[in-house]
Amino acid sequence: MPGPEAKAPKAVVWDFGNVIVRWDARTLYSKIFPDPVERDRFLREVCTIDWHIATDRGLSFADNCSALAARHPEHHDAIWAWKERWWEMFSGPIPETEAAIEALAARGVPQFGLSNVSLETLEGTRAMSPAFGRLKDVVASAAEGLIKPDPAIFRLAAERFGFAPEELLFVDDGAHNTEAARAMGFHVHHFTDPAALRPALEAVGLL
After folding, report:
1. Domain boundary at 66, 89, 112, which?
2. What is the pTM of this model?
3. Which residue of 24, 56, 174, 185 has the fewest C-beta atoms within 10 A of its own C-beta?
4. 28, 41, 24, 18: which is closest to 84 by C-alpha?
5. CA 98, CA 135: separation in Å to the nearest integer?
6. Residue 132: which of 118, 158, 157, 112 has the closest Cα?
7. Which of these three, 34, 57, 89, is where a domain ends?
8. CA-CA distance, 77 to 71, in Å (whole number)?
9. Residue 121's pLDDT is what?
10. From residue 185, how far is each of 7, 94, 131, 155, 164 by CA, in Å?
């Protein structure tokens, strides 16, 4: 968080995956590769997060999977499962975050979304929890051609939402993202423990 001399935040900006809803590729790939060594090797060497990030930039799942499957034909079906069975990577909303979003809404605190997300999956993700309905606006990476932790997407979000960075609290599970936001002047909460969320919101006077 910024020092005690900083302005208190007036609004909250939420990441989606592993903040509002739980996402883990292993949730799906443990079904495809029961051997954890084989599964982890596949996710480390084939369907990597660095590979997936292209879809968050706007590349279609089909194009991304097709190109990767051409390089790894021995894993054709497992690669295409990334597209065809995407929703099996989710294990539902995070109750503590849902409760916090509802409590903030009850107090009239403006709330927004900022997520690295494909437009192909954005609406499906938002359908997972009524908490998404409390967000007044969302900046989605694929729609903007920008991706966290690029400072430009944080600048865009603040402008779009109508607040100065120092008036916003950004909540994200990635330390690289919260550090980038902090450097732009945002208040930040690195989301690692759901139980720590409400105390963090109380500490800055939002709840």
Report:
1. 89
2. 0.94
3. 24
4. 28
5. 12
6. 112
7. 89
8. 13
9. 97
10. 10, 27, 26, 10, 8
One domain, residues 41 and 142: no
The pLDDT tens digits of the residues spanning 48-104 come to 999 999 999 999 999 999 999 999 999 999 999 999 999 999 999 999 999 999 999
CA quadruple 163, 124, 20, 23: dihedral sign = negative
- Specify the pLDDT at position 6: 65
The answer to whether 91 and 27 have CB atoms below 8 angstroms apart is yes
Domain that holds residue 117: 11-20+94-203
Q: How far apart are CA 192 and CA 51, in angstroms?
A: 24
| 199's tokens | 């105390």
Q: Tell me the two tokens of residue 146.
A: 């920008």
Residue 2 domain flag: no
**Inter-residue contact 49 to 16 (CB < 8 Å):** no
What are the tokens at 10?
């007036």
